[in-house]
């Protein structure tokens, strides 16, 4: 077996910079009593050497262990459910949860190493777009990683948590078909997102099984956000042959669709039926309450946290991808197709 690479120490970095170990330690700890030029040189060498702070020794008291839950976009109702599940699981395990917002472009070459230096035991990235460079940085830092609903599919094998998105898309569309609708549109999230692709495929499979056509302009992508629902909802409702029902890829998107419908004088569900996806709190607070596909978001957050801790402990996981079951929840936003 080849020898493992020698760990770079503070002394190594200090010697390269021509400064003391204490100075390097001050830079790592964000102390202000270091000259700017010296700080810049030390930080550059830390990145060059891929320095990773050593793990605490067994029995050493360093405070509560932490896991970082990182998002790529502003937090919303979906994010809140994930966080609550992770926090609850962390409390049971005696682990703290740190929530951060870091978009892809904000992940510099030293971002993963910085998380380890800050004492993070593992990283959970939610709806993130991680490139091969990001994944390589996580691997070099030996930071356990779990993804929830990634926006892209990494080529390397990464542990991920999701739900039965295809089955959810199938159930949502079959529900509308069972009410007599045939002109059904789909307004989803990012075209490259695995969860969106699965929901779209479920929608198309249900439509095909009933011989219902999907005309041009009936399947649109966005960002799972309210304003995308408004804009894309307006686009499909302004088609020469508008849909009588819309399946939205998220609850937030669905509320945007409902607003676009109201702006055109359409009543829900009398004139237009709408189905969402997620079953966040806003689905129940919508007017009328939103028919939606329930994702077990809190459970997803909890499973991700426990899986991350298993990886951090050096344990093997049973599967690199876990899908939790979805369920259709029927409320007041869907009704039989209106009579012409």
Automatic annotation (TrEMBL):
<keyword id="KW-0805">Transcription regulation</keyword>
<dbReference type="GO" id="GO:0000976">
    <property type="term" value="F:transcription cis-regulatory region binding"/>
</dbReference>
<feature type="domain" description="HTH lacI-type">
    <location>
        <begin position="8"/>
        <end position="62"/>
    </location>
</feature>
<dbReference type="InterPro" id="IPR000843">
    <property type="entry name" value="HTH_LacI"/>
</dbReference>
<protein>
    <submittedName>
        <fullName>LacI family transcriptional regulator</fullName>
    </submittedName>
</protein>
<dbReference type="InterPro" id="IPR028082">
    <property type="entry name" value="Peripla_BP_I"/>
</dbReference>
<keyword id="KW-0238">DNA-binding</keyword>
<dbReference type="InterPro" id="IPR010982">
    <property type="entry name" value="Lambda_DNA-bd_dom_sf"/>
</dbReference>
<dbReference type="GO" id="GO:0003700">
    <property type="term" value="F:DNA-binding transcription factor activity"/>
</dbReference>
<dbReference type="InterPro" id="IPR046335">
    <property type="entry name" value="LacI/GalR-like_sensor"/>
</dbReference>
<dbReference type="Pfam" id="PF13377">
    <property type="entry name" value="Peripla_BP_3"/>
</dbReference>
<dbReference type="Pfam" id="PF00356">
    <property type="entry name" value="LacI"/>
</dbReference>
<keyword id="KW-0804">Transcription</keyword>
